[in-house]
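Z., the sequence and structure:
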Amino acid sequence: MKAAKYAVEFIGAFFLIFTIGMTVIDPGGAGDFAPLAIASVLVVMVYAGGHVSGAHYNPAVTLAAFIRGKCPASDVVPYIIAQCAAAAGAAALVLFLKQGEAVTPVAPLVVPALIAEFLFTFALCYVVLNVATAKATAGNSNYGLAIGFTVLVGAYSVGSISGGAFNPAVAVGLGVMGVLKWTDVWIHFSGEVAGAIAAAIAFKALVKDQS
C-alpha cells in the first residue's frame, strides 16, 4: 500500500529530525556525541522501514533512487512531502519541549558549505544505492549500518562547516528550529540536490549489473 510507504517515510524522517534537534539544542544537548545519536537513530529507522518504503527519509536519497530507477515517479513527490512534513513537525515539537531556550543559528560560508553538503550527500546517496539497491548486495544485513555510519563520518568531518545536514528535510527542520537561517537553506538544498544527482550518475556509470 502506498499510504504505508508514505507513513513509514514520515515516521523515519520525524525521528531523525527530532533526534537532531534534541541533541544539538541545549539544555540536554549531547555535545560531541550528537552525531553518534543521530547516526544511531538513522540506523534503527532504516532497519525498521527499509522493507516497506526503502527507508529514504531524505529527499536527496529519493531523488537519487528515482534517477537510478528504484523509486517510481509517482512516489517522488509524496515521499518528499512526507519527509518535509515530518521535519517541520519534529522541529515544532523540539521547540515546544525546549521552549524558552535561545537558539543561535549557524552562519556557514557559502562555498565551503556547498562543497561539504555536496560531498557527503554524494557519499550518502552513493552508499545507499550500492548497499540497498544493487543486485550484488541484495539481502545483505549491514546496509543500515553503512548508511548510518556515512552520516556519522560526515557529521564529524564537516558538521562544523555546513551544519552537516546532507538532507533537504533536515535543512527544513533546522530552519524551523532556528539552527539554520532560512536565507541560508538554499546552500544546503543546492549542494544536496547536486550531490544526489552526481551519486546516481556515478552509480549508473560504475555498477554494471544494476537490476
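The chain has one domain: 2-100+107-206. Helices lie at 2-24, 34-53, 59-68, 73-97, 110-132, 143-162, 168-177, 185-206.

Let me know what you think.
H.
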